[in-house]
Amino acid sequence: MSRMAKRKAPKIKLPPDPESEAWNSIPWRKLEQQCFRIQKRIFRASQRGNTRAVHKLQKLLMKSQSARLLAVRRVTQDNQGKKTAGIDGVKSVKPAERTVMADQIHPKNWKDTSPPVRRVWIPKPGKTEKRPLGIPVMVERARQHLAKLALEPEWEARFEPNSYGFRPGRSCHDASEAIFNAIKQKEKYVLDADLKGAFDNINHQKLLHKLKT
């Protein structure tokens, strides 16, 4: 084979995608700062017990373009399940579609009910039984994350300092360290308990009333 034949074909450089460039050029750091400023105000209002101000600021946050764009980026780019489809089969959202999605999740466009989830059964480690996992459609995940951005600072201000489950900046290792520090001085009883099907059986209406949200 001749030397000319051994040469690799030159790579063809594709022109940049204007939609991707427009999405990537969004000032994400500035949007994060804008969102955080409102979250900090929610946190402080919750500490003061000013429920009216909390709800007003939460609505402001969910209507803001900053929070909506960040929510869409989270579920379409950052999350591990970004390529897992819901019942509509959508598992990859292009940049132009992400901008449309940010408009779709504005609270004024929210419907009374959410679309059904895709049910997947996940094996439990070391057990024969499986646990159900509901996978929402992509746009519903974005709505849920938008709500999370608004709700989290309110409840972080009210949660007890010794709770660790599903809280930002905390992990099971932090909980283990807290338990170790609490029992190292003298012997104490430790209760390990689990509520079977707690969220399946709890009265959701009473729970929402209790949360006052």
Short overview:
With 213 residues, this protein is mostly helical.
Core attributes:
213 residues, mainly alpha, two-stranded antiparallel ribbon, 2 strands, 53% helix, 6% strand
Structure description:
It is a single chain. By secondary structure, the protein is mainly α. 53% of the residues lie in helices and 6% in strands. It is built from ten helices and two strands. It has helices at residues 3-6, 18-24, 28-48, 51-63, 65-78, 95-104, 138-156, 172-183, 198-201, 204-211; strands at residues 118-123, 130-135. The chain has a two-stranded antiparallel ribbon with strand order 1-2. The model has no long low-confidence stretch (mean pLDDT 89).
List the helices and strands and how they pair.
Layout (H helix, E strand, L loop, with lengths): L2 H4 L11 H7 L3 H21 L2 H13 L1 H14 L16 H10 L13 E6 L6 E6 L2 H19 L15 H12 L14 H4 L2 H8 L2
Antiparallel strand pairs: 1-2
Helix pairs in contact: 2-6, 3-4, 3-5, 3-7, 4-7, 5-6, 5-7
Classify the oligomer: single chain
Q: Distance between termini?
A: 75 Å
Average pLDDT: 89
Low-confidence regions:
none
Radius of gyration (CA) equals 23 Å
**What is the number of E strands?**
2
Please give the order of strands in the largest beta sheet. Answer: 1-2
Helix content: 40-55%
Tell me the series of helices and strands, N- to C-terminal.
HHHHHHEEHHHH
Q: How much β-strand is present in the residues?
A: 5-15%
Shape: globular
